[in-house]
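Q: What would this chain look like folded?
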Amino acid sequence: MGEEAGMADVTEPGSRMPAPGVAADAATEAGSRLSRRRFLKVAVAGGVALGVSSLGYWGVESHTRARSSAAASAPSTSAPSTSTPPSPSPSSATGLPRLYRSRPDLSSPLISLTVPGLYAAAGQLFLTPATGPGPIVFDNTGSPVWIHSVPGKRVFNLRVASYKGAPVLTWWEGTLVTGTGHGEYVLVDQTYSEVARVRAGNGLQGDLHEFITTPEGTALFTAYSQQATPGSGAESGAVPLLDSIVQEVDIATGRLLFEWRASDHVATSESYVGPSAGQAFDYFHVNSIDVDTDGNLLISARHTSAVYKIDRRSGEVIWRLGGRRSDFAMGPGTVFAWQHDARRQPDGSISLFDDGSNGSKPPTESQSRGLVLDVNESTHATTLLRQYSHVGGILATSQGSMQPLSNGNVLVGWGDQPYFTEFAANGSVVMDARLPAGSTSYRALRFAWNGRPADHPAIAMEQSDAGTTTVYASWNGATDVATWVVLGGDAPDGLVALGSQPRSGFETAIVVPGRPLLVAVRALDSSGAVLTQSLPLEAD
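A: My prediction, written as structure tokens:
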């Protein structure tokens, strides 16, 4: 795939936007490695529980992030570039994780920025890397802000939502089952404390594809159910049906409020896939839900290549957009296939990610696109407003996201390809990034998030024979830290400031003079106010 990105905007061709290079916050190896005893002290100081077997690997390894810089590309209105793309940096090619001295229990995948995010929108990036430990929040430099490990489970669909009037993070965690998921949904508050878990009703398992909250304190999500005998409206004969289901539950009580089954309202003849031997017939494959402006639901179905508007009371189909039975005339450039992430926008348009392929050959389309469509419910006509494509000609065969942002930018996650790209309103690329080879994120989303962890900052230290001490400081999930101050001394009540340094990435290394018996760190915000202080750490 190409290492640059571009957009074809059918309404307003954009202009080239300069983007200077960005220097990476490289981790550096100090003169000595931490001893086993000192790592145990680091674990205590950071509030981390470590198994002894993990110390040997996680404790002593570190990797340096490669520097990258590139100019933002202009919008493309022609075919994708066929020039040979530059080789990925060694770190992204190997997929080695980034490790942290202050938090040896955590790691994160390395993100390569081929177009640095200097002109990207405010807020953080929310990903669930397939090779990562769990949900991760990144900043615009590709450095983690919050890393959450979920051992033994897969995680999908990390996003910011609202519950009881307060911002929360939500995600799905569970196990994968032939393209769907069996699991539950987690909600955590701004301290990263769990406030709720949501489970499907009627004996079903929550699916990975969608989970959204509503102002009424309910959640809408996807589920799948295999039927021994096809339900009403299904003509698949003796082949078991894998039914697509949408449920709404009350988050606080778990009470099931609404359930919609595709087999009750959509015939299998609308599908573009057929039954496969030995598998239940997944003819619909629901992958996104959105609440429309009138309170009804927009549901995206990958295997019918259509978006459905559903009456939230009766469950009846109000209209179909795309697919075999579209209620709208599809204007030039508006036909999509195998799509994901269909959303109603404030201006009345509908955005979605047009995969263009499901892995079969030849593909339906030559490349994937982010689309913004004018869907006129009076004239039943659909018009292409904007489309976004990667000049590398990326073609996703599953997953993907398309998120218009409040400042006019859009963020596109390229599905099962390891890229995500942000475009400015004029079509210029303001950020282009990739996960390590072999990794993907179901969606790539951006939100403004303010986190204040409930635990203390974590620290580690190394003391050199030259008479200096390097202190490594991190506070997993904190978004307001601007500066770290190192405190040192011989007694907990006698610590004095030895030096300071601006925060640089997830973990900041601060070198101070001397070899104090005890060190601690103090986190300051941009105004110089104290946010918190770590527990003291004793030197060997």
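The radius of gyration is 25 Å.
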